[in-house]
Amino acid sequence: MKRRSVLGVLLAMTMVAAMLTGCGNGTKTTATTTNETKKTETVAETKSAEVTQVELPEMATPNEWVSRFDGVKPTAYEEFGWTDDQITSIKDAGLTVGLVMHTGGESFSNAVISGVTKAAEELGVEIVAQTDAQWDAAQQSTNLESVLAKNPDIVILCQIDVEAMTDQLKEAAANGTKFVFFDNINASLTEDDYVSLVTTDTYAAGVECAKDMAAELGGSGRIAMFTWSAPNLGNRARSQGFRDYIETNFPEIEIVTEEFYDDASDCAALADAVFAKYPDLDGAFGQWDIPLEGVISSAQGNDIGEEFVGTCVDLGYNVARIMAEDGMCKGIGAQQPYKDGYYSLYAGALACVGEEVPKMILIDPVNVTKANLEESWPIIYDEPLPDDIQSLLK
Fold it and tell me: Shortest CA distance to 369 belongs to which of 214, 212, 245?
């Protein structure tokens, strides 16, 4: 395998995290967590006497990779807010909510549920159901029926197959259920069928991963991409953002293959075949943390050195630990799942009391490296970095 010096990524982001419960009687409250606008940066090599500099230009997200529907303009989450009077109306309404999760038991889903739970406590909303489809679209449809049987005022969900459940969703919406989607939404709905889509700018998250890859490789190398095969615009946007950034700005970084998987747990075996064909790969992009974990496991099994550069979307516990140990996960364009859950419930509750809600609430990704892991974790998860990972940073 071609060995390259590891670059220290100096992608600093100044962020202030603050969750809201309203201020002043009737006074509009807005989210105050912001991400510093990134500027073109220079990343200097730190492990070689010869200094290599890589410029990391900005790249905006094209409209087609942000809005899911024509005519829907995204609203930055910092601009989405509420008044004390509106909160009082929500508490007086005695609302209920059901969660139809795409999967569960991992960092992302747990954070979404934590965000919903926190908002429910603030608003006096009862969580009457919570299901886990384990990435099975047919199971998610069955789960939706079981949740709807409890007659919740609000249903929060992340759609696995964006073409599925259309009739179920439209019928329930016509009967008054307020649907709020996070991350991905049914592709066949109209604006009358749902309250809002709350999502990270996943194209921008892919761009952040590409920046980390380019910086670590010094602007040249051979890499692979691992992309979910599902027709899922939000996920495809991640890979497109990564590819666009590399191809536009770093022609000496060759994407030798893009591999497609149906099940994220298959990525280790898929990567084995890739390393057999391309043993000199310098890095790989995983569409989220679990696929990258499989790639890293394969790389270790194939005696690939720790200088191999892995990047992914989503800051899961395992990749965070690998990063803290100076392992193969070098950079992450993280979504903010806690905010997904938190703002999804606020959006649904406001709609239930007759308030107008943006049809799309957009959240910035967070660029995470080992250098800023400790301060990035609480921004993403609203809790401190786990002690065992903190100990690895000392």
Answer: 212
Whole-angstrom Cα distance, residue 164 to residue 226? 24
Average pLDDT of the chain is 88
Query: Could you read off the pLDDT of 22-38 as tens digits, one per residue?
Result: 333 333 444 433 343 33
pLDDT band for position 68 (cuts 50, 70, 90):
confident
Residue-wise pLDDT for 190-202, tens only, equals: 999 999 999 999 9
Tell me the pairing of strands 81-82 and 29-30. antiparallel
β-bridge partners, 223: 255, 283
Domains of the chain and CATH, by start? 75-199+337-363 (3.40.50.2300), 201-336+367-393 (3.40.50.2300)
Q: Residue 136: what are its φ and ψ, rounded to 5°?
A: -105, 110
Q: Do 343 and 80 form a contact (C-beta atoms < 8 A)?
A: yes
Is the pTM of the predicted complex or chain greater than 0.90?
A: no
Estimate to the nearest angstrom the gap between the alpha carbon of 236 and the chain centroid.
Answer: 12
Give CB contacts under 8 A, 24+ apart, made by 218-221: 218/4, 218/5, 218/7, 218/45, 218/52, 218/54, 219/52, 219/54, 219/250, 219/252, 219/253, 220/250, 220/252, 220/253, 221/2, 221/4, 221/252, 221/253, 221/254, 221/282, 221/283, 221/309
Q: What pLDDT sits at residue 40?
A: 37
DSSP conformation class of 118 = H
pLDDT tens-place string over residues 217-269: 999 999 999 999 987 888 899 999 999 999 999 999 999 999 999 999 999 99
The DSSP code sequence of 32-97 is --EEPPP--EEEEBSSSSS--EEEE---PPPGGGT-SSTTPPPEEGGG-EE-HHHHHHHHHHT-EE
Closest by CA position to 360, among listed 210, 202, 242 = 202
CB-based contacts of 49, cutoff 8 Å, min separation 6: none
State how far the alpha carbon of 149 is from the alpha carbons of 91, 108, 143, 180, 297, in Å.
23, 27, 10, 18, 42
Contacts of 253 (CB under 8 A, 6+ apart): 213, 214, 217, 219, 220, 221, 222, 223, 246
> Is the pLDDT confidence value at 138 over 60?
yes
pLDDT of res. 106:
86
CA dist., res. 124 & res. 120, Å (int): 6
